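Exercise: predict the fold of this chain.
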Amino acid sequence: SYHAQDMLVRAGENWAEAMITLSETMRNFKPEEQCIVVDSEVDRLLNEAFKAIKTNIERLNKIAETNGLDMEEIEAEYSSPSTYVLKVLSPREFRFHTLLQELDKLCALIDKMWYVSLVSDRHRSQIPFETKRQIIRMVNRVRTLVYRAQASSQRAGAPDAVDPRVGTVVDPSLKKNSGSAAPTTSSEPEAAAAAAEDEAQKGTTEE
């Protein structure tokens, strides 16, 4: 659905960067017991996002059952479906993509119920919007939590560790270098011509 694609574009990279920091970078210089505390809070926020979507799906299915409809028998097709090849660098990144699949299911269910007039125009627009806003809020809270935990270790004098994102799709240097032009080098014929000109000038000076 459009909404799941929108969330992948808007939040996918931010989540991936935060999770590689949590799963690898922070482990290099922060005590494991402190990392586990951050892990627990991240999992709690992620579970809340899953629960919110699940609650909406269950509520909508009950409405359909009350009206004697089995929504599995109705198919919803989208005009611009997309397939993505995902590079998952941590378990929690995989869970985030699973969350987007749940969002996809919710949106499909809403559309099918809208077709049979069980969901109003307002709710068809409002439920996905509110769900996406919750996901964005969750991603921002997790990023803030992870990066604050990392910064606290650096302020405490922990040695800088090699960033495991280097050499991967979330390498921070890729953003910095994406707009710069590649350096130019002189070709061998040009270098030879320049050397010959220098020699000629030297010979003129000596005469």
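Check your answer against the key: Residues 179-197, 199-207 have pLDDT under 50 and may be disordered.
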